[in-house]
From TrEMBL:
It comes from the Eukaryota. Pfam families: D8C_UMOD (PF23283), FXa_inhibition (PF14670), Zona_pellucida (PF00100), ZP-N (PF23344). GO terms for molecular function: calcium ion binding. CDD domains: EGF_CA. Residues 233-488 form the ZP domain. Coiled coil: none annotated. Keywords: Disulfide bond, EGF-like domain, Glycoprotein, Signal. Residues 11-20 have a biased composition (Polar residues). Residues 1-20 are annotated as: Disordered. PANTHER family: ENDOGLIN/TGF-BETA RECEPTOR TYPE III, ONCOPROTEIN-INDUCED TRANSCRIPT 3 PROTEIN. This is Oncoprotein induced transcript 3.
C-alpha cells in the first residue's frame, strides 16, 4: 500500500527550501493508495512541487471498469509547465471492492512521485414534489460516478474527440485545456492553434532570442547552444552514437554547479570551456522507450550547487538548479544484407535516423547451434548437407526493447533487387518449413537454423541473405512485434508493393560475403 500523507495532491512543497521525495523504491509491483495518501491516482494534470516532490506523476487516462480487467495507461510527470514532460506506461485494474490497484514502474529520474488523490463523495439526489426518490448519486459537472457507487471520479474530456482541441488536450481537475506546439499560439476560440506572426507575440515562441527579419522572424540561441529541429527551442548539443551519448554543456551555463545524470554517480567532467558527460543506453539511468516509428532514449542532466569551491575558479553560483533533458532518437526499422557469413571486417549496419542517432545490428553466421562463436577470420565453405546457423545480433543490448524479423530472403548475388529470390521468412511468418528458430538470450537477438541450399544453375554457387528488422517496446501488447506472423494480402496488380519495399530497403543495406557452396561429395 501507498499511504504516505505527503503523496496526496494537496501536499505542496517549497521547491527551493523543502527536500523533495522520490519513488526510487518502486519497481514493477502492484500498489493500492490508502490512508492519507488518497483513494486513487489523479487523472488530471498536477502542478509541479505537489505530492511531496518536484515532478508529480498523474494518470493520463480514465480509470477502467471492473469488467475491463488489467488495462495499460500512460502516467505523466509534470514539470516546468509541461504536464507530461516525462511519461511511462503502467497497468491499472478495478477491483471488486470498488478500489483500484496499479502496477507501477520505477521512475526514470528523481525527483518523481506517484500521486494519490481524495475524490469527492457524491450527493444523493434530493427529490421534492412528485418525483421518485431513487437514492441514486449525482456527481458535479466534470466528474463521473466510480465503481463503488459513491465516489465521483474526474471525467477525462480529452478522451472524447481530443476535447475539440486542434493539437494537444490536457486534462485538468473537473475541466481541460487546449495547448499548441512550439511556434504556434491558441486562437480566440481556445481550441484552434494559429501561427505566431512575429516577435511581439509571445517572443515568437522562441525559447531565447527572437529577431525580426523583414516580414517574418527567426529564433537565435546564446553561444554554445544550438537551435533544435522545431526552429524555436535552444538546446545543448547532443551527439547520439550506437554505443554512447555525448553531452557538451557550455561552462557559462554551469557556473558553480555540479552536473550529474539520473544516476548521480555519473558526473560531468570539465575541459575548461565545457562540461562533458558521456553515457550509454544501458547506464546512468537512461530510459529507452518506443514511440511511433522511433526508439527514444532519455536522461536528465541535473546541476546542483557545489559544496566547496572548484579547482577551476568556481566560487559563485548564478542559479539554484539546472535541469537539461537529454533525448536521442533512433529509427525502428532496419534492413541488413549479408552472404551466408559476415564479411571479414564484420562491419555493423549503422543507419542515421531522420533526427539523431544510430542503432546498429549485424547478421552473424555461427559455427554451431550454441550461437556462441561466429565466423570471423575466414569465410567457410558449406556443403548442401550442412546446417546454416545465423542470427540477428544488436551491437547494444537494451532492456525493454524487442525485435521482429519481418522478412529474410536469399539471392544468388549481393543485389537486393534480384529477380531470383527465395523467402525464408515473410511478414513475420516462416515461409520455409525447414527454418527453425531458437530461444535467444534477450528480446533483441534472433537465432535461426536452416539446411544449406543453393540456387538452381551451375553458375550459382553463392548465396546472400537479406533481413528486415523492426524494433518495438516489450510492453506494447498491440505492437507489430507482438503480433508476430501476420500475412498481408498482396495487390493483384503485381509487384508495386514489393518494389516499393525493395526501394526502401535498398537505401539501408550492408552487403558482405559471399559464401561458396561446395558441390563435391
Amino acid at each position: 500500500c501507498l499511504n504516505e500523507p505527503w503523496r496526496n495532491t494537496d501536499h505542496q512543497i517549497n521547491g527551493s527550501r523543502d527536500q523533495p521525495t522520490c519513488d526510487s523504491h518502486i519497481d514493477g509491483e502492484w500498489y493500492r493508495f490508502t490512508g492519507m495518501a488518497g483513494d486513487a491516482m489523479p487523472t488530471f494534470c498536477i502542478p509541479e512541487n505537489h505530492c511531496g516532490t518536484h515532478a508529480p506523476i498523474w494518470l493520463n487516462g480514465s480509470h477502467p471498469r471492473e469488467l475491463d480487467g488489467i488495462v495499460q495507461r500512460q502516467a505523466c510527470a509534470s514539470f516546468k509547465g509541461n504536464c507530461c514532460l516525462w511519461n511511462t506506461t503502467i497497468d491499472v485494474k478495478a477491483c471488486p471492492g470498488g478500489y483500484y490497484v496499479y502496477r507501477l514502474t520505477k521512475p526514470s529520474v528523481c525527483f518523481h512521485v506517484y500521486c494519490g488523490h481524495f475524490y469527492d463523495i457524491c450527493d444523493v439526489v434530493d427529490c421534492h414534489g412528485s418525483c421518485l426518490d431513487t437514492g441514486d448519486c449525482m456527481c458535479s459537472l466534470g466528474t463521473t460516478l466510480g465503481p463503488d457507487g459513491q465516489t465521483c471520479l474526474d471525467e477525462n474530456e480529452c478522451e472524447q474527440d481530443n476535447g475539440g482541441c486542434s493539437e494537444f488536450c490536457v486534462n485538468l481537475k473537473n475541466s481541460y485545456r487546449c495547448e499548441c506546439g512550439i511556434g504556434r499560439t491558441l486562437g480566440k476560440d481556445g481550441k484552434t492553434c494559429e501561427e505566431i506572426e512575429g516577435c511581439h507575440n509571445n517572443n515568437g515562441g522562441c525559447s531565447h532570442t527572437c529577431i525580426a527579419v523583414e516580414d517574418t522572424y527567426q529564433c537565435e540561441c546564446p553561444r554554445g547552444l544550438v537551435l533544435s529541429e522545431d526552429n524555436h527551442s535552444c538546446q545543448v548539443p547532443v551527439l547520439c552514437k550506437s554505443t554512447s551519448i555525448e553531452v557538451s554543456i557550455p561552462k557559462d551555463l554551469v557556473g558553480g554547479l555540479d552536473l550529474s545524470l539520473s544516476n548521480a554517480s555519473c558526473k560531468g567532467v570539465s575541459n575548461g570551456t565545457h562540461v562533458n558527460i558521456n553515457f550509454s543506453l544501458k547506464s546512468c539511468g537512461t530510459v529507452v522507450d518506443v514511440v511511433n516509428d522511433k526508439i527514444i532514449a532519455t536522461n536528465m542532466v541535473t546541476g546542483l550547487p557545489k559544496q566547496t569551491p572548484g579547482s577551476n575558479g568556481d566560487i559563485i553560483v548564478r542559479t539554484s538548479k539546472l535541469l537539461i533533458p537529454v533525448t536521442c532518437e533512433f529509427p525502428r526499422q532496419y534492413t541488413i544484407s549479408e552472404g551466408y557469413v559476415t564479411n571479414l571486417k564484420n562491419s555493423p549496419l549503422e543507419i542515421m535516423s531522420r533526427n539523431r542517432g544510430i542503432f546498429p545490428f549485424t547478421l552473424e553466421i555461427f559455427k554451431d547451434k550454441e550461437f556462441d562463436e561466429p565466423y570471423r577470420d575466414s569465410l567457410p565453405t558449406l556443403k548442401l548437407r550442412d546446417s546454416l546457423y545465423f542470427g540477428i545480433e544488436p551491437m547494444v543490448h537494451v532492456s525493454g526493447l524487442e525485435t521482429l524479423v519481418e522478412s529474410c530472403f536469399a539471392t544468388p548475388t549481393s543485389k537486393i533487387d534480384e529477380i531470383l529470390k527465395y523467402y525464408l521468412i515473410q511478414d513475420g511468418c516462416v515461409s520455409d518449413d525447414s527454418v527453425k528458430q531458437y530461444t535467444s538470450k534477450d528480446h533483441l537477438t534472433k537465432h535461426f537454423q536452416v539446411p544449406v541450399f543453393k540456387f538452381v544453375g551451375k553458375d550459382n554457387k553463392e548465396v546472400f541473405l537479406h533481413c528486415r528488422i523492426l524494433v518495438c517496446g516489450v510492453l506494447e501488447e498491440r505492437s507489430r512485434c507482438a503480433q508476430g506472423c501476420r500475412r498481408r494480402m498482396r495487390r493483384s496488380a503485381g509487384m508495386e508493393e514489393e518494389e516499393e519495399e525493395t526501394n526502401h530497403m535498398a537505401n539501408h543495406i550492408l552487403t558482405g560475403g559471399p559464401i561458396r557452396i561446395d558441390m563435391d561429395e
